[in-house]
Specification:
This protein is α+β, with helices and mostly antiparallel strands. It has 2 helices and 3 strands. The chain has a domain of 67 residues: OB fold (Dihydrolipoamide Acetyltransferase, E2P) (Beta Barrel). 37% of the residues lie in helices and 14% in strands. The radius of gyration is 24 Å and the shape is flat.
């Protein structure tokens, strides 16, 4: 009879320990485990973020987010990666300027074409 009471308590304790060890309910995030060695086309990328010990990850990396919402990990010391980051920063800065001035952010600065009304 004591075994019937002890077994559920042991299972409950084990479950609590496992969930605590996995970080459920914490601000844990997915971390890059290695850097991609392939070149990343700039037309694929819409944004980036930095990863490192300050974000709870062991590997320092630049995490690019593609237009299809895929994540690509790259080395922050790679000159091509640094150039891509600079280009994205410039694009974001220019988009903010254009929005303040009321300009369109469409390619070539063209305004969006309006539909013609039929009479």
């Amino acid at each position: 009879m004591a075994l019937r009471l002890l077994l559920p308590l042991l299972l409950l304790a084990a479950t609590l320990l496992i969930t605590q060890a996995q970080g459920i309910g914490s601000s844990a995030s997915d971390c890059c485990l290695k850097h991609s060695q392939k070149a990343i086309p700039s037309v694929w990328v819409k944004s980036y973020s930095l990863q490192g010990p300050e974000s709870g990850c062991l590997l320092h990396a630049v995490v690019f987010t593609t237009k299809r919402n895929k994540k690509i990990c790259a080395s922050p010391t790679d000159p091509a990666v640094q150039k891509l980051m600079q280009n994205l920063d410039k694009k974001v800065k220019n988009d903010k300027k254009d929005k303040k001035k009321g300009r369109s952010s469409r390619p070539g600065g063209r305004p969006k074409r309006q539909k013609q009304q039929q009479v």
